[in-house]
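From the shared-data thread, chain only:
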Amino acid sequence: MSRVGKHPIHIPSDVKIQVSHGIIEAQGKLGKSSVFFTDDVIVSHQENIIEVRPADESKQSRMMWGTIRRQIASLVSGVNVGATVNLELSGVGYRASVQGSNLVMQLGFSHDIVYPIPQGITIKCEKPTSISITGASKQQVGQIASELRTYRKPEPYKGKGVIREREFVLRKEGKKK
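Structure, as tokens:
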């Protein structure tokens, strides 16, 4: 069983934390965000440290202990440093560009895919075949990367599609004569 919850969360000096009934709010240089937590855990906040512990010895409390601790750690690092996911477009003619507040992708369909960029998220395309998604919420950045990936998942024969950075695409051998 993991013991992630035992480790305290150290808060950087430029992040302000506010703990109230079931809500933790963090404000940093990249914005303001919050996390809800249940009565299964007890969250205590001293000067620059947050500690999470289970309310009792039930299985539910012990499960939520590590989960809430990890969510709070992601919240603190998100408002301070941010989260980034890089995607690569692999395939002939696959391109992406940012036009205004939309991401326009050409993925081999007869039409362009227009994805509206949500508030608080920054998408950059340094090269036509790379997409960089940045934001304060690690969950939201990952969700957007997952949504973009669903438009053209990597296929195993030629390796074409939208691929996360450092993702390994298992390649299959094609037909033999």
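DSSP finds two helices and 13 strands in the chain.
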